[in-house]
Amino acid sequence: MKEKLLVSLQNNLALAQNIAKQLKIKNEIIQLQNFPDEESYIRIEFDVKDKVILLLYALDHPNPKILPLIFIAKALRHLKANKIILITPYLPYMRQDKSFKSGEIISAKFFAELLSSYVDTLITIDPHLHRIKTLADIYTIPTITLHATKYIAEWIKQHISSALLIGPDEESEQWVADVAKMANTPLIICKKIRYGNKEVKLTVPEISDTTKTPIIIDDIVSTGGTLCALANILKENHFPKPICITVHALYDQTAQEAISKAGIETIISCNTIPHVSNQIDITHLILEGIKEIK
Ligand code: R5P
Asked: 87: helix, coil or strand?
């Protein structure tokens, strides 16, 4: 078995150090800075020859991060790394998985082709699989898809005694149902119609028991539009204040304000993207993924 080396950038050091410590391997940092004209300056000061490189690389808000990733992957190859395993806890460009209007490109496919041509294996957590059913449908490299469900269920069991889980849309059912089963809680699934980036309309099935703590579970919080729409309906129906749990706290610049305005006080997230709401640690989940590498 070739020697493994965990490689990361400065911006996800805490997670990188945790993983490296558990694996009892070294964590090396790639220097990435911007030149004044915003071109990337990259420096790799350590030896990668013949090593299996576990490259922990965040790809939330992806565009400025993609070109440096390509340069890093090319450099690692040039320096004769044995393999490049990209660990990106949040996988972007999964939501444009269909051409809804004529001329719209299916960026999920193009992005998959791009990553597949620079790294050898991809490890990620709860990618937004909806019309694309599995990453193998669009990635040509081996992919390892991990699920935070058991960690979320564990958090619920430890913190909430009487919960009602709510999935905001039909596509969430596939995995929110797993959380409900593991946490042994009832579950309802709403219907969602999206009218634009921030405008969504939700309908909640009728529920007579409004005494349980509603826990809204969604894979991504981006604009916060979905959470806010759901929190408003729950309020109209006299539910207690909800707790929101998300895997990926993507948060655009307006999300926090919208969420506060909707009166949502508690949001909990997994640390797939560094954020103040991070409370569910996915280090061990990533370790499970690393064990699966062939
Ligand atoms: C989409 O279908 C996802 O599962 C999320 O519900 C969505 O991405 C959340 O985005 P936003 O916070 O902008 O409503």
From this structure: strand
Centre of ligand 1 to C-alpha 283, Å, is 24
Sign of CA dihedral 198, 199, 204, 209: positive
Quick one: which of 23, 22, 87 has its CA closest to 53?
Answer: 87
Q: Read off the pLDDT of residues 207-231 as tens digits, 9 standing for 90 and up.
A: 777 899 999 999 999 999 999 999 9
Q: Within its chain, how far is the Cα of 41 from the centroid?
A: 27
Mean pLDDT for the stretch of residues 87-114: 97
DSSP 242: P
Label residue 252 exposed, middle or buried (CB < 10 Å: 0-12, 13-18, 19+). middle
Can you give the pTM of this predicted structure? 0.95
Whether residue 245 has its Cβ less than 6 Å from ligand 1: no
Does any ligand 1 atom lie closer than 6 A to the CB of residue 246?
Answer: no
Q: Which residue has the tokens 């090319």?
A: 74
pLDDT at 209: 78
159-177: per-residue pLDDT in tens?
999 999 999 999 999 899 9
Q: What 3-state DSSP class applies to 122?
A: strand
CA of 107 to the centre of ligand 1 (A): 17
- Residue 102 DSSP one-character state: T
Residue 53 to residue 76: CA distance in whole angstroms: 8
**Cross-strand partners of 144:** 123
Distance 59 CA to ligand 1 centre (A): 17
Q: Please state the atom number of ligand 1 nearest to the C-alpha of residue 225.
A: 14
Q: Tens of pLDDT along 266-283?
A: 999 999 999 999 999 999
